[in-house]
Automatic annotation (TrEMBL):
<dbReference type="InterPro" id="IPR000182">
    <property type="entry name" value="GNAT_dom"/>
</dbReference>
<dbReference type="Pfam" id="PF00583">
    <property type="entry name" value="Acetyltransf_1"/>
</dbReference>
<dbReference type="GO" id="GO:0016747">
    <property type="term" value="F:acyltransferase activity, transferring groups other than amino-acyl groups"/>
</dbReference>
<dbReference type="InterPro" id="IPR016181">
    <property type="entry name" value="Acyl_CoA_acyltransferase"/>
</dbReference>
<keyword id="KW-0808">Transferase</keyword>
<protein>
    <submittedName>
        <fullName>Acetyltransferase (GNAT) family</fullName>
    </submittedName>
</protein>
<feature type="domain" description="N-acetyltransferase">
    <location>
        <begin position="8"/>
        <end position="173"/>
    </location>
</feature>
Length: 173
């Protein structure tokens, strides 16, 4: 177990970070598998996903003590899968999307994913946007707990790659 001193930095990922990001995502993919989750068991995400995130300025890494300990894609474009929802979004105002949140195995259970989301909220507000949308698999219990803890509202179901996903939204002040 690694000590976390509370000094974190969420920054734009670069192509030099790609290998470290992929290692963290592979760990998260394996954790989902060990949790008997179907999420991320179909070849997604993959190294090409990360490269695309970085090239589109969507990829962000969380660092502590000069070590990459987490990753997330923060997307400031309309998510096509969110255009049709079985349910209702809280609002139809401009939003940012969070995808591919992953934390290094060294830091599991230390609240790092929560910190990633809190830092994302700061970025979103700094861009004068007041809404975040995110989805997760029905069986991704750790993510469902984080979204509940951070007051993301369950809005219904959206579909990705033919599978239903729980969709959430948070309106920011």
């Amino acid at each position: 177990m690694s000590k976390v001193d509370g000094k974190f930095s969420l920054r734009q990922a670069t192509l030099n970070d790609q290998e470290n990001i992929w290692k963290i995502l592979q760990q998260a993919i394996e954790r989902r598998k060990l949790d008997f989750s179907n999420q991320w068991q179909d070849g997604y995400p993959n190294p090409e996903s990360i490269k695309n995130d970085i090239e589109n300025n969507f990829g962000f890494v969380l660092e502590a003590e000069n070590e990459i300990i987490g990753y997330a894609a923060i997307i400031d474009e309309i998510e096509p899968a969110y255009e049709i929802i079985e349910g209702q979004w809280l609002s139809n105002q401009k939003y940012m999307v969070v995808h591919r949140v992953a934390v290094s195995n060294k830091y599991i259970g230390k609240g790092i994913a929560t910190i990633i989301f809190q830092e994302i909220e700061k970025i979103v507000i700094s861009r004068k946007i007041h809404s975040i949308k995110v989805d997760t698999n029905f069986d991704n219990i750790p993510m469902l707990k984080i979204l509940d803890k951070l007051s993301y509202a369950y809005c219904g179901e959206v579909y990705f790659r033919g599978s239903a996903r729980k969709a959430f939204q948070k309106l920011l002040i």
